[in-house]
Amino acid sequence: MDSSVISFYAISAFLLTFGVMAVTTRKIFRAAIWLLFSLIGIAALYFWMDFQFLAAVQIIVYIGGIVVLIIFSIFLTQMSGKDMPQALTSRKLIALALSLGGFAFIAHFLAHANYHESSGLVDASMPAIGRKLLSVETGGYALPFELISVLLLASMIGCIVIALKKAQEKP
Amino acid sequence: MCNVAYGAYAIAKNFQIWDLNIGVLYVSAVSSFAVIGILMAGWSSNNKYSLLGAMRSGAQIVSYELSAGLSILTIVILTGSLKVSDIIQSQETGWWLFKGHIPALIAFVIYVIAITAETNRAPFDMAEAESELTAGFHTEYSGMRFAFFFLSEYINIFIACGIGATLFLGGWMPFHIGHWEAFNHIMDFIPSSVWFLGKVFFLIFVIMWFRWTFPRLRIDQLLNLEWKYLLPISLFNLLLMTVVAIMGWYF
Lengths: 171, 251
Prior knowledge:
The complex is a heterodimer of chains A (171) and B (251).
Chain A: H1 3-24, H2 28-48, H3 52-77, H4 89-112, H5 126-134, H6 142-163
Helix pairs in contact in A: 1-2, 2-3
Chain B: E1 10-12, E2 15-16, H1 23-30, H2 34-44, H3 48-79, H4 84-89, H5 96-99, H6 101-118, H7 130-133, H8 143-168, H9 181-188, H10 192-213, H11 219-247
Helix pairs in contact in B: 2-3, 3-6, 3-11, 6-8, 6-11, 8-10
């Protein structure tokens, strides 16, 4: 057991602890903050794997963007200091069943995947990532990139339509 | 409670803790933690003014991060790398502010405006506007906690100015002009740490200068400035820089 394995388990324990805390706490603002910590844990895992670009994007997008938006919407909508009401038992059971099912699915998938030793040498330099993102050959990411762009454009148009002020009706 | 995490800095020649592949992106990613600290502090004070200050500061930091990021990208187009040491090495024959002429100059001005807003300095200090919100998000804090807020604010300024100095003013690279060997050689006698710190302190001076020169804006004017002017200008500037880089119209 060398130091890298130990740090992997330490990061994973950190991530799982805060993930569990995020779903068990009754205060919604705390849930958001625990979620933030578990997302930091994921970024740390990426750093551990030496995928620095992915880690930095994880931090920018999830921590700088999504968690801030979640906190904003909590401020604007919820009584954020109060305890949330206890969920119904039937809903709890359904949620438990669904999460166990998801876990079983992923565990099955992981157990039956045939892994092969990676060469360990991935070209993760900036120009390589950029070319890969826009390449249309096999293994390129041009199609997902374009799809996500269209999706974002659609959601932006939706936001503008919702936020548009209606013309004042003259009395 | 607050944010401090910085290793990817080249303070002087061969003097850098962690020269990672994506240095500039990493620093801007880590500095986006600041807003969460401010939001938490404002909310947990359980006070209208603090909450208002925190919300303002959140809106402001999130929106100005865009222009700051875009103007960083403008220089990254020229260097083709996010690695701090590569960026500094590419400025051996002159700083990007001069080599990249018009688009680099526009990007520099936008960057300085954006970091002034991002670090909550006047004239953009809406988060702690003392004449309207008493002291904004840190009204309820005193003693060591108050000190931590200010410590993180000033460290943030140093970090932002450090990125600015690295990208636009050449980091620790002395002032070189093209192939004037004699002149470059004389400049090399000044130690590289003096160059770096001098540039950073110059940028900090500019930001403090703003503080005492301009009156404070209103929050809606502030957001208008970002979304209606700075963001379109910096997007267009990015395009302009791409054209310049493709055609090779820089020195």
